[in-house]
Amino acid sequence: MGLSNSEYADDAPKIAINVKSKFYKKILDGKFFIPTGPGNFRHKDPSDPDQEYITNSHGFRSKEFSSKNQLLVAGCSITHGSGVPVEARWGDQLAKKLKMSHSTIAAGGASISWVVENVIAHLEFFGFPKTIVCLFPDAHRFFAPINGTTIKSKNLCISFKDSTGLAFVHIENDSNFNEKYFKIPLPAEKIISSDMCLFQSVRAIRELERYCKLAKIKLVWGTWDQEFNNIVKSLNKTELKFNNFIDVYSKFNYKRKIEKNIAIDSIYPSLRAKNNCTHDKTFGCSCEIAECHLDLKKELGDKVFFCGTDINEGLEHAHPGGHLHAHFAEAFFNNL
């Protein structure tokens, strides 16, 4: 027996949504892109006075989007190129190797679901490129609406007003759930679990894999986060495997060495070499460190080659330099 429209109406949840409000109009808008900054904008980041960041008309650090571009690269702040000039980014290095024109979809702090949503928006508006390559972030990020009344966050990436907008919520662990009480507005970082983030992230990637398969687009993706990288490698040994994943660390390993006011991302030819290096915080060691990409080092200079220049918030928070970008570009190139 079917249900009439009125049956069980009293049991239905009452959700207070004013779809005419500016907040709901913006978060429910199925518009083309969800950029995190203005279009046609030239600026310098407070954490990085050395680099100039220029956005295209859609608000991304990219050439103007075009249906003629054969390659689309996407990701978070590393793909955006925080701390390095445009020519040092892995996406630009890859495009140069492939001899393809390209577009870049990326934003600092972006979650995996945000990346996928914007990639699909690009496909809808500009058509299908020949190849899509994604370098995903960790799976602890959640793209969430923040109304400022019941939910708050310090990580608003798009502000509709001072306390509302869309946020890249970064969940470090689930220890917050030990707290007995929370005060409204609830901090998003304390009520979203790591399982929710992983669920949202993995589903988004699987949707992108299916989309590209149906559209006959060559898709390759990896992640710079070694924890998520290991999770995916484990899944790929089971029936839950992904179809388009590559391990960007299969040919190298790295770790950052910091001494005084200098940071170097040391590249090791193997995990064994990395693990055998006991001089984590000094440069004067004789460990097995890869000496490669010397032409790029000469082109960029030591300052940008070894570490990003966005160091004003601490060397440990600076993004990778051009050398690590070169290894990411090579990893993708060798799988295309």
Keywords:
single chain; 336 residues; alpha/beta; Rossmann fold; 4-stranded parallel β-sheet; 3-stranded antiparallel β-sheet; 11 helices; 30% helix; globular
Kindly describe this structure.
- It is built from 11 helices and 13 strands.
- α3 (90-98) packs across α11 (322-333).
- β8 and β9 (164-170) form a beta hairpin.
- It has helices at 22-27, 77-80, 90-98, 112-126, 188-191, 194-215, 226-235, 271-276, 294-300, 302-306, 322-333; strands at 42-45, 48-54, 71-75, 102-106, 131-136, 141-146, 151-152, 156-161, 164-170, 186-187, 218-223, 253-259, 262-268.
- Helix content is 30%, strand content 21%.
- It starts with 21 loop residues before the first helix and ends with a helix.
Number of helices: 11
N-to-C SSE series? HEEEHHEHEEEEEEHHEHEEHHHH
- Mean pLDDT equals 86
Compute the number of strand runs: 13
Shape: globular
Number of separate domains: 1
Largest sheet: 4 strands, parallel
Radius of gyration: 22 Å
Residue fraction in strands:
15-25%
Which class best fits the helix and strand makeup?
alpha/beta
- CATH class group: Alpha Beta
